[in-house]
Amino acid sequence: MTTRLLSSLCLSALLLVAFVAPAPKKITVYLVGDSTMSTKEVKAYPETGWGTPFVAFFEPELVAVENHAQNGRSTRTFLQENRWQPIAQQLREGDYVLIQFGHNDEVPTKKSATTEADFQQNLLRYVTETRSKKATPVLITPVARRKFDEAGKVVGTHPYAELVRQVARANQVPLIDLEKSSEALLQQFGVEDSKLLFNQLAPGEHPNYPQGRDDNTHFSELGARKMAQLVLADIRALKLELANRVVQREVKVAVDPQAR
After folding, report:
1. pTM, full prediction
2. 166 belongs to a structural domain
3. pLDDT (0 to 100) of residue 22
């Protein structure tokens, strides 16, 4: 091999290395919300928040998912209990914060109740403080409860969902309208089969609920996975950079050697 040829090959190799894009840095996705999103204690199973299966959608080398959602929390109580402030302090450029509240804000009889004005102001605080760290906030409308009318049509139960949409529109925040997509999913399943998506248990069916359970708000493992898939679909539809970090698995298709 001539010296000139060798030099040319070395130069080509160096140029190839120079143009290889560096691996993206690892980011953190913070989940902030209520019981429909939260990680459950063992004593609550099979009740499952959609944040649990959501963790497995991403390459662990590229994304760390931290689920900070808590049962019974509203935009107000999450702040009052100092659950948001540590998250805001450790946010880094490129991180994401997925924000889903409403279930506990909108019920006047709950201690977690929040006025409409305060609800929107709290959401705006989460958005503003996230952006101040060059991280990306994503607002999520509250996921649907299982409720049908006599004609078998899904009935909406979240008056605060539109307030989330308003904040997203006014501040150009990516919005995942989980209320609408989950309502469509329940409609697809229908009145009876939709029970499979929720923590509905007959007496004696599970030792955690010896008297059974008739829960139309919290999910079964199947329901949590289905809701997480809806969230992931919207992340892709919104073309967020986060979508590029979803687990990639090679699909091998068996080929029949006799096929022509």
Report:
1. 0.87
2. yes
3. 66
